[in-house]
Amino acid sequence: MDVKKKNRILAFCRFSIVFVLLLVLAGNITNSVLLKFGFRDDHKLDGYAQSLTLVSMMEGTAPRPYVYRATFAKAAKQIAARLSPELQQKFFKSISRYDSLRHSYFSGVPDEYWTPVVAITYHIVYFFVVLSMVLTLLVVYKLARMHGLTFGQTLGFLAGFSIVYPLTFQQGGYYYDFIEILGVFSACFFVLKRWMIPCTLVIALFSFNKETFFLVPLALFFLHERDVSMRSRIGWLLLQIACCFVSRHFVMNGYDANSGSFIEVHAKENLLFWLNPGSYVRFYNLIAKGIFTPSLQNPLILVPSIVFFRHAWRQAGTRYKRYFFAAFLPVAALFMLFGYTDEARNLSLAFPAIVLIALAGAREFGQIFSGVASDRNHAVAQLDSKVDA
């Protein structure tokens, strides 16, 4: 076999491995979260259209502030409604015959609400949830390769990310969380590639998903390399902030009559939760039924995380540290006041910064937890055993 043909086969193998891994990991992440929380459809029939369900999102009748995240659901409904009645009935008949998705993830929708348009909308949203997770994992893969990780190390890092990320959905989760994380990671990736036009377009588009997305360009301002002029940084920031506030006005306008308040304050509940020692030894039944996984603040996860990030922080570049503080501190303040207990998914705007810091220590993951000397002894022992054989 000549070198050119061999390289083609190896390239195809790498593509196949990454493609399959992205599908498997995205499936595991979305499956674990949706099996636990679904599309928040477990509400009583009385007042169902004014609850936190996807039905109320697509109708724009959900309570504030959740209705501010309804843009994508309303757009999906518009797509379904624009289909011809014949095509709607054809899709609905197929959905009703093979309705495994509804039984698995949104069985709580009452039959009177399960119309052809609603059923098609649910499937459109589910498809984009999975697609968003696949593309997010692809961006994480690209980031790892950009930072010099080998192919094998990148696959390990990707698997590690997919293990930790679902644990952030400890207290709840919504469909727009998966869309948001794709937008945040994509914007970060484009800044690192210096593709500012795609970055700005991504920010403008995904800012319709959630009213707090304006924090993304504020943090990205600190991610630029040194040779990017301050004038250019400020120009892009002002343009991106303008896009965010236009979309923010759009997503928050017209819901004055909806129930609920402009924001939900949980500072008291959060203080009591974090002062309770029992909060640090919790286990959650999230990943699979009957399998309880430790919370992020449980010592089983917290202690290894501190050890790893302490090492990774020392290896990380200065601009990544600045970006981390710019991304994490604002959402941490919002989390303390308006989040709910350990609902870590609310810190998602800082996840790309956390990943960039983690990448700085990913190549030395084995040495961090086993020690260089221990690794050398293990390698020598393996070599001796092969020689003896």
UniProtKB/TrEMBL annotation:
Chain ranges passing through the membrane: 12-35, 120-141, 148-168, 174-192, 199-222, 234-251, 323-341, 347-366
Organism: Paraburkholderia sejongensis
Keyword Oxidoreductase part of the UniProt annotation: no
Protein name: Uncharacterized protein
Keyword ATP-binding: no
Key words of the record: Membrane, Transmembrane, Transmembrane helix
